[in-house]
């Protein structure tokens, strides 16, 4: 019988300890047949702690100046059909299109779920 690969890092060197499977490379522990929990770093929340998902509508809660432009995204601007970016290194984790402005990225800390 072969053991499954680690669901977190895909290592093939997993081993059993009692009723748990353990990965020696990333120290992840799980029960066989258990669905892996979503990593907390992949969850994006708005300014009030509500979990956001792709396709949500959000409202801007602060005037946001646009770099390289004299335009401003005003408080209360509603943005529909957002797309979440889980690997955003600069903190801009929402990709969207704002009417009158165009495509841009927002930080989730400046929006609330509509």
Automatic annotation (TrEMBL):
Membrane spanning stretches: none
Entry-linked Pfam families: YjdM (PF03831), Zn_Ribbon_YjdM (PF08274)
Lineage top rank: taxon: Bacteria
Domain Protein YjdM N-terminal: from-to ranges: 2-30
Domain Protein YjdM C-terminal: 44-114
Family to which the UniProt record says this protein belongs: Belongs to the YjdM family.
Protein name: Alkylphosphonate utilization protein
Protein species of origin: Acinetobacter sichuanensis
Organism lineage string: Bacteria, Pseudomonadati, Pseudomonadota, Gammaproteobacteria, Moraxellales
């Amino acid at each position: 019988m072969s053991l499954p690969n680690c669901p977190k890092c895909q290592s093939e060197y997993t081993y059993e300890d009692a009723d748990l499977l353990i990965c020696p490379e990333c120290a992840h522990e799980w029960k066989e047949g258990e669905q892996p929990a979503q990593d907390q770093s992949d969850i994006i929340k708005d300014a009030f702690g509500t979990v956001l998902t792709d396709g949500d509508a959000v409202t801007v809660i602060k005037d946001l100046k646009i770099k390289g432009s004299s335009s401003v995204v005003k408080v209360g601007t509603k943005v529909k059909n957002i797309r979440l970016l889980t690997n955003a290194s600069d903190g801009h984790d929402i990709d969207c299109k704002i009417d009158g402005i165009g495509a841009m990225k927002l930080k989730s800390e400046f929006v609330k779920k509509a």
